[in-house]
Amino acid sequence: MAAIRPRAMRRYLGYGLVIDSALPLPELTEAPETYGKGPADVTVTLGPIADNGLPPGDTQTLNWLAGNRLWFKLDGVGQFLIEQGRSITIQPEPGCDETSLRVYLLGSGFGGLLFQRDLLVLHGNSVRIGDHCLISVGESGAGKSTLAAGFLARGFDVLADDVVPVDAQGCAVSGFPRIKLWGETAARLGIDTHGLQRILPGLDKFNVPLPNYRPGLRLPVRTVYLLEVSDLPGIRLEPVTGMDRMSALTEHTYRFHFLQEPAQMAAHLRQCSRLAAQTRLVRVTRSSQGFELDALIDALVADADRAQT
Question: Which residues, other chains included, contact 242 with Cβ-Cβ below 8 Å and sequence gap of 6+?
């Protein structure tokens, strides 16, 4: 496989940011000419990264340096250095393909960068409901991606999938115009994956485009739903109260292990406290005996509507 080489810089939009990248990013929206040639918010480059004395690690090693530099390495993929919330440098390993490189750039790379830009980053998805939005979070297998795809199939706009940034005003910021969906789930929802790009070579998981994506859209978060699975039948909604609200947001922070220094942890706690004071948190439990997707969406929409009145 040929080595990955930098291309001429192209300008993209994602997470409310203008991004100049030497690595093609077809998952993002290319910036129209109206965005001009002024400085970008973020620059992505390919090149060598000095190890800075950091331990190499067999599978993944990460360290924050001085609170505003994040370095991590993924065997078979490469090294990533995120600095000041403004630049990402990538040193690909020999034999790595561009698709794999983009998966980790657009996930962990931008997740770390958004931390550096003082955003609360949650691991879930956000969906527009009228003039506000809801966020769904949960452990692996709780149904986050299936729920996002179900909302999409019902005509709702999905703002962000997997990496959900929330600003200081309690608004979720739109991500980029795709959700990641397993082939089996797509087939169950009647979504044709023919011609869609796999998120990794050989993996039966696809990038499903979002038709009504609006770069830079910010909507107030009305409710954060904590998705859980139970052996009990039906769907149950229960408000999350007290200190459980803070712990729930911390538990579902994207790449929480990136936060290692006391100052970062203190800033993160302030972000969680601010969002907990601004929004509702609701635990949603569904039965493990079958995913009643339409019933779950109906329950969340009805709850969101009641909260608005």
Answer: none
